[in-house]
Specification:
hydrolase; five-stranded antiparallel β-sheet; serine-type endopeptidase activity; mainly beta; Rossmann fold; 10 helices; Peptidase_S9_cat; AB_hydrolase_fold; Peptidase_S9B_N; globular; eight-stranded mixed β-sheet
C-alpha cells in the first residue's frame, strides 16, 4: 500500500500518478524549435598513446565544432569550425584545420598554440620531431619544416610537392628540379634532377628509402594523353636512371601516363623495379556531330567510345632499372592487370571478352603472367571479377577466388587448383543475398600474415583454411546462438590502403589475436577478442548499437561509438580484456529533458513462410490504450539499424527522419523485405502488408491512417504497392522508377552501363530481359497498374538525377493526372538523386510532414493543395 502525504500539492500527486500509470517521465514534448539543439557526432579519433580523443559535433542549424579531450582528466580543447584533427605519433601535439586561422598546432603539455596560414598539406615525421607543411601562396609555394622541439623553422621556396621516406629524408619537386633534403645532416639539400623546360611530379619512395622515382612531363603535342619520362635515383650510389617511352623499343612509342585514382609509380618490394602505366597515343576525344550507335560494339555508345578500344586502355608495365629491361604486363589482348603481393606475378584479363553482357562487372578469362619472364598461362575461364571475388596471399604464392559457391585456391608454383570449402558441408555462398546475378560469398577479410591460412566467413562464423586443403578450423561458434562474428578489418592499419593495381591481399597476425565485431540475431552488438589458444573474451557486447572501433597505435586502448534508438551516440573508452570501459563523451545530453520514442523488433512471416523482422518505433509518451497513425518506411533490410539514433531535423536529403514522426504521435514501421526472383514489386507488397498486419494485430494503429514512404528503389516499391492495395491513406515516393520496361532500356552517358545490370544482376531481381518475360516486367511495374491506385501520392525527383531520370516520376504523375488521381509532383531543379541544397532539404522535409499530417491526422492548418 502507498501512503499519501497530505502535504503534497495536488498537482504533484497528479503528475506522479500519471508517471506511475504510464511508466513515462514528465519530460516535455520536442518542438521544431528544439531541433537546433541536436548535433551529429563524427570524425572521432584516438591519439597513438591513448591519452587523447578528438571528435566533431556537426549542427544542421549552426556552426560545427571540433573537440580534443583528455581521456583521464576530461580536459577539453575547443576549436569552433575546426576540422581534421591529426595527432603526432608521440602524442605531444595535435593539428587542427581552421577556416580562418589556418593550420593550428597545439602542444598538450605546455598549452602552446601556433597557427600557420595557407597550408595545403602537412605531415609529422621523424617520430614527431618535425612537422612539414606545404604552404600554397599566391606568388610562390614553400615548404616549411618546423622543429617541434626547438620551434625553429626551415623554409624551402618554390616547392610544388613533397614526400617523406621512412627514414625521414624529404624529396621535393619544384617546377624544374627535384631535391633531397636530409634533416639528419642539418637539412642539407642535394639536387638529383634539373631541367629548365619541363616539370617534375609524382614523387615516390621505395619501401626501404634507398631510392626515389618520379615523372617528368614531356612537351605537349596534339595527341592525348600527356606523355612522361620516369627518373629513378639511387641514394646508395647516387646514380640516376631514365626511361623515356618515346625512345624505348620495348614500349613501341607508347606513352607513360598518369591515371585517375591509381598510383603513377610503384616500387617492387626490393626497390629495383618500377611499375607504371602506358597507353597508345591518340587524338583527343571530341563530341561528334553525328554519333554512330552500333549494336555490334562490345559496350554501349559512350563507354565504348572511351573504353571499347583496348589499344587506348591504360596498361601496366615494369622497368627493371639496372638492366634497363622493360616489359609490358598489360597487353592489347589482356589490358587489365593486378599484381600479386610480391609483384612477381600479375593476373591479366580483358574485361571486354564477354561483352555485351548484363551484369555490372563482366566475367573474364584470367591469365597468370610472370612479371620477370613474361610467360603467361590461362588459369580460369569466365571468372567473376567483382570486388571480393578474388585475392592473393601475403607471400604471393596463392590466388584465392570464389566460384561454384565455394572458395578455391590456385597454387602458383605447382600450377594446381583446389576447392578448400566444398568438403566442409557449410554454405559459404551468401544465401541472404537475394539479388539476381552471380552468386556471392559471405566474404573473406584476407589471409593470416604468415600465409598459412586463408580466412573465410560463413553466415555466422570465421574459418581458417590451409591453402592445400589439409586443415580447416572454425575459430568461432556463432551459429549455435545466431551470433555473427567478423574481423574488425579497419583496426589493421597495413590493410587500410589498397592499391588498385594489386590483388586484394589484407593480412592478419594471428599470433597477436584478433579483434572481432559481433552482431546478435536480436541486434545486440559489440566486440570480442579472439586469442591464439582459441578462447574468446568479451570486450564490450550489449543490446545497443556498438561500432566504429579504433585502436590507439601504441597502447591497448580503444574507442568505439555506442547508441540506441533512445540514447544519443557516445564515445566509449575501453581496453581489449573487457576489464575497463567508460563513457568518455556523451553527445546531445539535452535529450534527457525531452520525451522520446522507443524502438523494438517485430517478427512476422510473408506468404511463403519466411521469418522476417522489422523495426517498430512507438511514439514518445506512448500510451498502450491509445491508437496512433503510422508511417511505413520501406527499402530492403532495416532491422540491422534497430539501435540507430535519429536526430530530429528539418534538413534531410530524402525528406524523412523517423524521429520527426515518433516525437509527434506517430508510429513508424521499417520492415525487412525478402524477394522472390522475377517478382520484386509483388515481394515488397507481400512483406510490407504482412508487417503492417502484424502491427495492426496489436491494436495500436489507426487502421485508416497508415502512410507509406520510400526513396529510389524504395520509391519504386511505394509506387507499385499502392497499385495493389488500399491499405494506405497517403504515400510518398522519391526518385522512383515507375516503368520497369522503359527503365530497363534507359541509357545515360555519365553512368558506366545502361540500366540492364540493375535488372539482371542487381536489386530489381529479374533473370532475363523483358523479351523473355514481358509479363513479369509488366506485373511488377507501377505504370501499367496505375489505374488501380486510390492512395494520394506525393512524388519528387531531382532534375539532374544521373541514376534514375526524373522523367520516370514525371511519366507516373502524368498517368495519374490522366486517370484523375490525387497526385502532386515536386521537381527540384539542379538536384540529383538526393537533395543536397539545405534550403531545399528543408522544403522537402516540411512538405513530406505536411502531406502525412494532412491525410493521416486530418490537420487543417496546412492546405496540401497549396503545395507549389
Amino acid at each position: 500500500m502507498i501512503k499519501i502525504n497530505n502535504t503534497f500539492p495536488l498537482t504533484v500527486l497528479l503528475i506522479l500518478a500519471v508517471a506511475i500509470c504510464y511508466g513515462q517521465s514528465v519530460n516535455r514534448k520536442i518542438t521544431t524549435a528544439d531541433y537546433a539543439k541536436w548535433s551529429t557526432l563524427q570524425d572521432e579519433a584516438i591519439s597513438p598513446d591513448g591519452l587523447w580523443i578528438s571528435y566533431s559535433l556537426q549542427y544542421d542549424y549552426g556552426a560545427d565544432t571540433l573537440f580534443v579531450q583528455n581521456c583521464k582528466s576530461d580536459r577539453k580543447l575547443i576549436f569552433p569550425s575546426g576540422n581534421n584533427a591529426i595527432f603526432s605519433s608521440d602524442g605531444r601535439f595535435v593539428t587542427v584545420s581552421d577556416p580562418e586561422k589556418g593550420l593550428i598546432l597545439q602542444e598538450f603539455k605546455s598549452g602552446k598554440v601556433q597557427s600557420f596560414r595557407n597550408v595545403s598539406k602537412h605531415e609529422f615525421f621523424a617520430e614527431a620531431k618535425y612537422l612539414a607543411m606545404l604552404k600554397k601562396n599566391v606568388s610562390s609555394n614553400e615548404l616549411q619544416i618546423l622543429d617541434c622541439n626547438t620551434n625553429k623553422s626551415y623554409i624551402f621556396p618554390d616547392v610544388q610537392e613533397f614526400t617523406i621516406s621512412r627514414e625521414g629524408k624529404i624529396a621535393v619537386s619544384t617546377f624544374h628540379e627535384v631535391r633531397i633534403i636530409d634533416p639528419a645532416e642539418n637539412f642539407s639539400e642535394k639536387t638529383i634532377a634539373q631541367d629548365s623546360a619541363e616539370s617534375f611530379k609524382n614523387l615516390c619512395w621505395s619501401e626501404n628509402g634507398s631510392a626515389v622515382a618520379f615523372l617528368q612531363q614531356l612537351p605537349k603535342d596534339t595527341l592525348a594523353p600527356d606523355n612522361h619520362r620516369i627518373i629513378y635515383y639511387n641514394l646508395t650510389d647516387s646514380k640516376s636512371y631514365m626511361l623515356d617511352g618515346s625512345t624505348n623499343e620495348a614500349l613501341m612509342a607508347q606513352r607513360i601516363i598518369v591515371r585517375l585514382s591509381k598510383p603513377a609509380l610503384t616500387f617492387s618490394p626490393d626497390g629495383k623495379r618500377i611499375f607504371f602505366a602506358i597507353t597508345t597515343p591518340h587524338k583527343p576525344f571530341t563530341t561528334e556531330q553525328v554519333e554512330i550507335w552500333d549494336t555490334a560494339t562490345p559496350l554501349e555508345y559512350t563507354q565504348n567510345k572511351y573504353r571499347g578500344n583496348t589499344n587506348y586502355e591504360p596498361k601496366l608495365a615494369v622497368w627493371s632499372v639496372e638492366s634497363g629491361r622493360v616489359m609490358q604486363i598489360g597487353t592489347v589482348e589482356n589490358p587489365k592487370a593486378m599484381l600479386t603481393t610480391d609483384k612477381n606475378y600479375a593476373v591479366c584479363f580483358n574485361a571486354l571478352r564477354y561483352e555485351p553482357q548484363y551484369e555490372y562487372d563482366a566475367p573474364a578469362d584470367l591469365y597468370l603472367k610472370n612479371t620477370h619472364t613474361g610467360k603467361e598461362t590461362l588459369i580460369l575461364q569466365k571468372q567473376a571479377t567483382s570486388i571480393g571475388m578474388m585475392g592473393t596471399s601475403p607471400d604471393g604464392k596463392f590466388i584465392n577466388y570464389f566460384r561454384d559457391n565455394n572458395w578455391w585456391i590456385y597454387d602458383i608454383e605447382k600450377t594446381k587448383r583446389r576447392s578448400i570449402t566444398a568438403q566442409i558441408g557449410i554454405a559459404f555462398k551468401n544465401k541472404e543475398n537475394d539479388n539476381s546475378g552471380s552468386p556471392t560469398p559471405y566474404g573473406s577479410p584476407g589471409w593470416s600474415a604468415d600465409g598459412k591460412y586463408f580466412i573465410a566467413y560463413d553466415q555466422y562464423d570465421i574459418w581458417l583454411l590451409s591453402p592445400d586443403g589439409s586443415k580447416t578450423q572454425k575459430i568461432t561458434h556463432g551459429s549455435k546462438n545466431k551470433v555473427r562474428y567478423r574481423i574488425c578489418t579497419d583496426l589493421y592499419q597495413e590493410n587500410k590502403t589498397h592499391n588498385l593495381d594489386n590483388l586484394f591481399a589484407p593480412k592478419f597476425d594471428l599470433t597477436k589475436g584478433l579483434i572481432l565485431e559481433v552482431l546478435g540475431d536480436n541486434m545486440a552488438s559489440g566486440y570480442y577478442k579472439w586469442y591464439p589458444n582459441g578462447s574468446l573474451k568479451k570486450m564490450l557486447f550489449k543490446e545497443s548499437g556498438i561500432n566504429r572501433i579504433q585502436k590507439a597505435k601504441d597502447a591497448e586502448m580503444y574507442i568505439c561509438i555506442e547508441q540506441t534508438s533512445a540514447l544519443p551516440p557516445s564515445i566509449i573508452l575501453l581496453n581489449n580484456t573487457g576489464t575497463f570501459s567508460k563513457v568518455i563523451m556523451q553527445s546531445n545530453p539535452q535529450s534527457k529533458k525531452f520525451d522520446w520514442g522507443q524502438a523494438e523488433l517485430i517478427y512476422y512471416k510473408n506468404k511463403f513462410g519466411d521469418n522476417l523482422k522489422g523495426i517498430l518505433y512507438k511514439p514518445a509518451n506512448y500510451k498502450p490504450a491509445k491508437k496512433y497513425p503510422m508511417v511505413v518506411l520501406i527499402y530492403e533490410i532495416f532491422s540491422h539499424g534497430l539501435h540507430n539514433y535519429y536526430n530530429p531535423t528539418e534538413y534531410d536529403s530524402m525528406g524523412f527522419i523517423p524521429s520527426n514522426y515518433f516525437l509527434d504521435d506517430y508510429i513508424v514501421l521499417m520492415p525487412d523485405i525478402r524477394y522472390k526472383i522475377d517478382d520484386p514489386g509483388m515481394s515488397a507488397l507481400d512483406c510490407v502488408e504482412s508487417s503492417v498486419n502484424a502491427v495492426k494485430a496489436t491494436g495500436i494503429v489507426e487502421e485508416n491512417h497508415i502512410g507509406i514512404i520510400g526513396h529510389s528503389f524504395g520509391g519504386y516499391e511505394v509506387s507499385f504497392i499502392i497499385t495493389q492495395t488500399k491499405t494506405f491513406a497517403a504515400a510518398i515516393s522519391g526518385s522512383a522508377i515507375s516503368d520497369l520496361i522503359g527503365s530497363y532500356f534507359t541509357y545515360a552517358s555519365n553512368i558506366l552501363r545502361s540500366n540492364t545490370w540493375r535488372f539482371e544482376g542487381e536489386q530489381y531481381r529479374m533473370t532475363s530481359s523483358p523479351f523473355n518475360d514481358w509479363n513479369s516486367y509488366q506485373r511488377n511495374s507501377p505504370l501499367p497498374n496505375a489505374k488501380y491506385i486510390s492512395t494520394p501520392l506525393l512524388s519528387w525527383a531531382g532534375k539532374k538525377d544521373p541514376t534514375i531520370p526524373w522523367t520516370q516520376s514525371a511519366s507516373f504523375h502524368m498517368a495519374l493526372r490522366r486517370l484523375d488521381k490525387k497526385s502532386i509532383f515536386l521537381v527540384y531543379n539542379g538536384e540529383t538523386h538526393t537533395i543536397l541544397t539545405p534550403e531545399l532539404q528543408k522544403d522537402l522535409t516540411i512538405k513530406t510532414k505536411n502531406w502525412f499530417d494532412y491525410y493521416l491526422k486530418q490537420k487543417t492548418g496546412t492546405d496540401i493543395n497549396d503545395i507549389p
